[in-house]
Amino acid sequence: MPDTIYNVAIIGGGPGGYSAAFRAGQLGLKTCLIEKDDKLGGTCLHVGCIPTKALLFNAEIYDHLKDAELYGIDGLGAGKLNWKNIQDRKTKIVAKHTKGLDFLVRKNKVDRVLGFARVRRGVTGADGLPARRLRQPRRNRNPVGFGCPLGEFERPTVQ
Ligand SMILES: Cc1cc2nc3c(=O)[nH]c(=O)nc-3n(C[C@H](O)[C@H](O)[C@H](O)COP(=O)(O)OP(=O)(O)OC[C@H]3O[C@@H](n4cnc5c(N)ncnc54)[C@H](O)[C@@H]3O)c2cc1C
What is the pLDDT of residues 122-140, one digit of tens each? Predict the structure, then answer.
């Protein structure tokens, strides 16, 4: 099978996409994961679940520390928030998980494609089955052309 023909092509490297890609890879399917951003993780890792929970934990600690004496801890004084350190901690957590996803992509033998995928009608795959054609955005002068039931591309940008 040529390198550019896939059993499964998945659009979007958020939790939905990367979980599906890892599972497909584990099942032995030749899989590519197309993500428009240069980092995997999607909304959850970069905007939603993870950063918000990291920040909420800072707030929780701060809230408890305000009542330190009530819990029998004296001498802490009035705490002051250090926004830079709070942001740095959050950024480190996100970066660690992003690296973890990069590792899992390699471990599960998923090909990563950097680009904006589009599903188009009316293209027939190499095996004659109805196919979908996906391309990178117009601003990219080297469009990725896909054809095949679930993905064949001519010029991958794999990281
Ligand atoms: C503030 C906030 C807090 C949240 N907190 C929680 C929480 O605590 N727990 C929880 O379970 N959920 C939480 N969520 C919801 C969670 O983030 C989403 O349910 C989850 O991210 C959905 O995953 P997904 O893979 O479907 O989509 P996304 O995470 O949105 O990923 C989609 C990915 O696809 C890429 N993409 C889109 N279109 C294309 C294209 N055409 N070509 C290539 N790539 C493309 C995007 O760049 C993105 O990386 C929160 C959401 C927000 C906004």
Answer: 655 555 565 544 444 444 4
For the chain, the structural domain boundaries read: 8-52+97-152
Point out the ligand 1 atom lying closest to the alpha carbon of residue 37.
47
Q: Tell me the CA–centroid distance for residue 146 and ligand 1, in Å.
A: 24
SS3 (DSSP) at 62: helix
Nearest CA to ligand 1 atom 30: 43
For the whole model, what pTM was predicted? 0.80
Say how many Å lie between the CA of residue 158 and the centre of ligand 1.
Answer: 22
Domain 8-52+97-152 falls in which CATH fold?
Answer: FAD/NAD(P)-binding domain (3.50.50)
Tokens of 85: 């350190």
Question: Strand 8-11 relative to strand 130-133: parallel, antiparallel, unpaired?
Answer: unpaired
